[in-house]
Amino acid sequence: MGLKRICGWIIRKKSIGRIIIIEVSSDSVKPSVLVLKEEREPELFKLGMEIDIGTALCFEGEEAPEQRSARGVEYIARKIEVYAKPIEPLPVDTMGKVPALLDTRIKYRWLLVRNPVEKAIFIIRNSLLNAAREYFSKNGFIEVQTPKIVAAGAEGGATLFKIQYFENDAYLSQSPQLFKQMLMAGFTRVYEITPYFRAEKYNTTRHLNESWGIDVEQGFINSVEDVLQTLENLITYIIEYVLKNNKEELEILGATLKKPSTPFKRLKFQEAVDILRSEGLEISETEDLSDYAEKKLGEIMAGKGYELYFIVGFPWASTGFYYMRDEDGVYTRKFDLDYSGLEIASGGQREHRYEKLLNALKEKGLNPENFSFYLEAFKYGMPPHGGFGLGVERLLMRMLNLENVREAILFVRDRTRLVP
Ligand code: AMO
């Protein structure tokens, strides 16, 4: 058997008489288990006595012929190089035996990623994004980057972070919405993996102030159904990819992820209202669903066997100015995708006709001058198009049954956190 070199940090050490067992956390969720025997390797045993939890080291060794540990792969070490010892006791238990409060987990995330459970979440986050990129590249989407310093918001003024941009006021981008639409003047399928900055004032388990989106826009569509299909295929691709590539991580997290059944249910907004009203909830026909209503609908849909479902046809009164309206003017081609009672994505078919778009802006009380850079893109042959924004942390949260969206991002930005 060949010699391997593995680098990482000691997360556990146990001495049993003349044997020392050291667990090293590296880049996979299963630690490497070093078994040092005084009789077999006296020098390394001596070194093993001196090093403790938190030490950064590399070792060379071969897999033990008899594997006795259920926790990781056992090695017989030939060489150990110590790179750094902790200068203070660790502030958290990187083995995860002593559960830390969420606040502590967030503060010490960079250290806790040595812990297999915490590491598993972020290995799966990496897979989720790999899967998305693989899906897009197989399906003819090109990856684009749009500015994060912008002059106008796409999602309304209430959640904009204002910044000083030389002599002008500017904002941090809430969504690449306007730019990805403008690109429909010259590309037919684009995607962007991007931060969203939103001044959400409230402390909820679903909101961050800096979150990540997987954004899509596609042109020459026949109807909003083309966009629903892309999102459904993307989500299915991501979940299947994680099921295939992250068995160990899912097991460590105790996650019960399943391949979603397709097609996802398409529930009309008005149907959702009727269902919720029949359960005794007071629901407005012209406003977005409240968090409570969303959750309640999730329970009802779960009872019918639907985990993932679209809510389609939101009323114009509740949406952004850019969604295409139905002939009646009351409903739009806007949709949400909900995953067990949580909105994870939102999108729709856009208004691509210049005059109608201009009127929509005015009707929403917005000043077309502030959007002139955007409106111009609709003058020179803008095809019918649509797209969506999918929240990375919200999707991960639901896939892994996490309780708080803060568990799904390495460094949290919320109302009270600006460091680390
Ligand atoms: P929306 O505002 O619904 O739509 O955002 C899309 C998705 O992004 C995620 N998300 C968030 N996640 C955590 N914290 C937040 N503060 C937060 N805000 C949004 C959610 C949400 O479903 N312009 C449209 C997209 C489009 O039509 O293309 C938009 O941004 O999962």
Automatic annotation (TrEMBL):
Localization annotation: Cytoplasm
- Name the InterPro entries on file: Aa-tRNA-synt_II, aa-tRNA-synth_II, aa-tRNA-synth_II/BPL/LPL, Asp-tRNA_synthase_2, Asp/Asn-tRNA-synth_IIb, NA-bd_OB-fold
Asked if ATP-binding is a keyword of the record, the answer is yes
- Annotated Aminoacyl-transfer RNA synthetases class-II family profile domain residues: 122-420
Which PROSITE patterns does the UniProt entry name for this protein?
A: AA_TRNA_LIGASE_II (PS50862)
Q: Which UniProt keywords apply?
A: Aminoacyl-tRNA synthetase, ATP-binding, Cytoplasm, Ligase, Nucleotide-binding, Protein biosynthesis
Q: Which Pfam families match?
A: tRNA-synt_2
Q: Does the keyword Glycoprotein apply?
A: no
UniProt GO BP: aspartyl-tRNA aminoacylation
Query: GO CC terms on record?
Result: aminoacyl-tRNA synthetase multienzyme complex; cytosol
User: What PANTHER family does this protein's entry cite?
Assistant: ASPARTATE--TRNA LIGASE, CYTOPLASMIC, ASPARTYL-TRNA SYNTHETASE
Task: Report what the protein is called.
Answer: Aspartyl-tRNA synthetase
